[in-house]
Here is the input.
Amino acid sequence: MRVTIISIPVLDQEKALKFYTEKLGFIKKKDKPLGGGNRWLTLVSKEAQDGPELLLEPAPNHFEPSKVYQDALMEAGIPYTQFDVDNVDAEYERLTELGVKFSVKPSTMGTTKYAVFNDTCGNNIELVQEL
Amino acid sequence: MTFYEKELNRINDLIYSNQGQIETVIAVRCYIDNNCDLALNLDFLSHIHFVSKYHLLRLFKRYYGLTPGQYLKGKRIEKSKERLKNGMSVTETCFAVGFESVGSFSTLFKTRTGKSPTQYQKEQLSRSKLNFES
Here is the structure.
């Protein structure tokens, strides 16, 4: 068995695609129609294009409990997904300039530096740098 | 303050209150990162950071979730991938990133990445050739 997909529930796949590629810098890998305007849409990291794929899935629009769970995580400020970066401060500056909103500014806890932003598709996402 | 921030504060107070320990392990990790191609061992790492060998082992594992030895191996494999991608031979790569035997390097590489260094290099080089052609 191998780990190849990480799912992120999004409210709007097209909007998510734009945000994740244009602001975050991911690259589109697969885009297949699934009927009803839904797509099997995956992205990879620019730095590790043979690494795991991010699946932007429209679950909150089709499965009520997914929507409830996503809303509850957002409300509690909990990032369900995190991405590693080399420098949290630099990414914070870069993304803030692009208009991305952070709920937690770069902070340090033990051997980790982190920050949390809103992906505009219903999720808090955490950036993490190991110190 | 959100539920998440409150939880972080709680965990911070519970787990990360010893700033001295944190500074020590961060310095050790940083040293490993910058010197992973050299012959490093626990005796040496503990000696230069003024802590006992077993204390350092426990501390590092506690804060990073793996031992300094495991961390060092991972770092060397990461560096070896870069060198193989750039076309360096398997033997040269092995010694350049700090391993002492080609056999143990190849075995570890295969265990960690699922491919032998030679296979990995072939795939990477053919991929970059494809990118170049397209």
